[in-house]
Design a protein that fits this description.
By secondary structure, the protein is of the alpha/beta class. The protein has helices at about 5-10, 15-25, 40-50, 65-70, 95-105, 135-140, 180-190, and strands spanning about 30-35, 55-60, 75-80, 80-85, 90, 110, 120, 140, 145, 160, 170, 175. The protein is globular, with a radius of gyration of 17 Å.
Length: about 190
């Protein structure tokens, strides 16, 4: 998943957290999921981190659980496309699976996003529309067909991570913690603080 400057401009969201940790003198090693079917993690996230001189290892999307089980992950940070009033978060497909794996392995899972991503008018993740993408993105790589003719393809662009899997939502105003229905509302009640 890419949540760096290429996706958000400037410092980035999830990658902004990584950059901030390094600026604070912490040693950081990043494992980036490749992010199928467009491979934004392998192409964009890895490119940004290599360019910044940050240690990066690209893994396939289905390797995260094994890496977590081996103790290779201390925390997870992802971006977000929309955050509902209760903290449910829509992000690139595969985010929910990583959150479930993180919880199973007692690894904190954080969402990093600007306040503008939070939609207090959307009560929960069930009310976030999910885009269905073209089947060819899954059935083909370039002009090469991988899936056989006649196979159905399901290709949602996003999934929703329920708020109970999220340790904190990191914004330009600080980290918001559960219960999100209260903390996120308070973020907008006092915008000048």
């Amino acid at each position: 998943m890419n949540a760096g400057a290429l996706a958000t401009a400037g410092y980035g969201t999830a990658l902004g957290v990584i950059r901030g940790a390094i600026e604070a003198g912490k040693h950081v090693t990043v494992f980036a999921d490749e992010t199928r079917p467009f491979l934004q993690g392998a192409r964009l996230t890895a490119w940004e981190l290599v360019r910044d001189g940050i240690e990066i290892t690209v893994i396939t999307d289905n390797m995260a659980g094994s890496l977590m089980r081996q103790g290779g992950v201390n925390f997870v940070v992802v971006g977000a496309d929309r955050i509902a009033a209760n903290g449910d978060t829509a992000n690139k497909i595969g985010t929910y699976s990583v959150a479930v794996l993180a919880r199973e392995h007692d690894i904190p899972f954080y969402v990093a996003a600007p306040l503008s991503t939070i939609d207090l008018n959307t009560p929960d993740g069930d009310h976030i529309p999910i885009e269905e993408r073209n089947a060819r993105e899954v059935s083909h790589v370039g002009s090469s067909q991988l899936a056989p003719e006649g196979a159905s393809i399901w290709n949602p662009a996003f999934d929703v991570t329920p708020h109970q899997y999220i340790a904190g939502i990191i914004t330009e105003r600080g980290i918001f913690r559960p219960p999100y229905i209260e903390s996120l509302k308070a973020a907008f009640a006092h915008p000048g603080d």
